[in-house]
Amino acid sequence: MEQNYISDKNIWLTGASSGIGFEIAKVLSKFKTNLILTSRDSEKLTNAIMKLQGDAKKYAFPMDISSESQVREAFEFISHEVGFPDILINNAGIFKPKSFIETKIEDFEETLNVNLRGVFNTTQSVLPAMLENDGGTIINIISITALQPFPNCSVYAASKAGMLALMQGIREEVRKNNIKIINIIPAATATEIWDKKFLEKNRNLMSSPKDIADLVVSTLQLCSSNTSMIEDIIIKPQV
After folding, report:
1. Cα(37)–Cα(126) distance, rounded to whole angstroms?
2. Tell me, what's the pLDDT at 206?
3. What is the number of domains present in the chain?
4. Residue 49 and residue 21 in contact, taking contact as beta carbons nearer than 8 Å
5. Which residues form the domain of 152?
6. Residue 35 lies in a domain
7. What is d(CA 4, CA 130) in angstroms, rounded to the nearest whole number?
8. CB-based contacts of 152, cutoff 8 Å, min separation 6
9. Structure letter (DSSP) for residue 171
């Protein structure tokens, strides 16, 4: 099986300015590819792209995936300036750890708007071209909370469970069109979404964001197969 599926592809990565997204961008930037990086934090995105090294051509576009109009604008930019995305990596998301009773309706709405509606927006923007071209790959960074209950993240878990169900359903609609939809389901990962004190105390009990990034890129390398598709992958800390 050839191992250059990533080369010469147009890759759209959301949530690219920090955490898992930035680690994915660092690995992908080493390939000869067109890397489109989006994030709603313009300053962080600019700083992130300046740190990337490698053969990839890099494009930055600040946007909020929960906004249909901003996603449409980003997709038009990508399509005109780079080309239709061959690969979409849905990584952007937010996490607000709170007990259910402490969760305000604003927290609920923002979490679902970003984590679920945002994925709906980006995926719906790229699928028509993938269907027309009879091929493409969508990788989704989900969460173990979609499968396993934990305290103080019920709304986050609901958003990720919805994301998982959404993408599994879409997969069955488009698999006959040579479109691969792959869900990466990490457990706790050491990124800045956690409180600093909590992260310092528990870092050794978490996966590293680079591990997730390496898994994403390794999975992409297997997507040249016309006969098989990786579907859902769970990755957990060793300890």
Report:
1. 15
2. 73
3. 1
4. no
5. 10-233
6. yes
7. 19
8. 97, 98, 99
9. H
Degrees, nearest 5: CA angle 25-27-33? 75
Q: What is the CATH number of the domain that holds 111?
A: 3.40.50.720
The dihedral through the CA atoms of 210, 211, 216, 217 has a sign that is positive
152 is a domain residue: yes
Both tokens of 203, joined, read 């870092």
Tens digit of each residue's pLDDT (9 = 90 or more) over 87-127? 999 999 999 889 999 999 999 999 999 999 999 999 999 99
Report the predicted TM-score, pTM, of the whole model to 2 decimal places.
Answer: 0.93
Establish if 51 belongs to a structural domain.
Answer: yes
In this predicted structure, the answer to whether residue 213 has a pLDDT above a threshold of 70 is yes
Assigned domain for 239 exists: no
Q: Which stretches within the chain are classed as H helix?
A: 19-28, 42-51, 68-81, 105-112, 118-133, 154-174, 196-202, 209-221
Element (H, E) at 87: strand 87-90
DSSP string of 92-156?
--------GGG--HHHHHHHHIIIIIHHHHHHHHHHHHHHHHT-EEEEEE--GGGTS--TT-HHH
